[in-house]
Amino acid sequence: MQLFSRPPFVLALFALLATLVAATPAFAQSARLSGHLTDPSDAPVAGATVTATDTSTGVSHEAVSFPDGLYIFPALPPGRYRLETNAARYARTASP
Question: Which domains does the chain have, with CATH numbers?
Fold first, then answer.
């Protein structure tokens, strides 16, 4: 009952804050990138370093492939990326 006896601006302020808190995740944009590294015989490549470089900013992010060859970049800023892989016993590769 006391909630309704408060001045209207307090209720409006509370509504505004609740809206801003609820909308915050909408501003935090990111992308997930994943893939599997395999050799020419389709065997997984474990322990490879995968580098994703944003082509417009030059900012790089690194991931290491799991035993099954899976690599994951869980939260990349949206953009265009150039991928490079580097693993022992394999030639370094890069996307165009």
Answer: 2-90 (2.60.40)
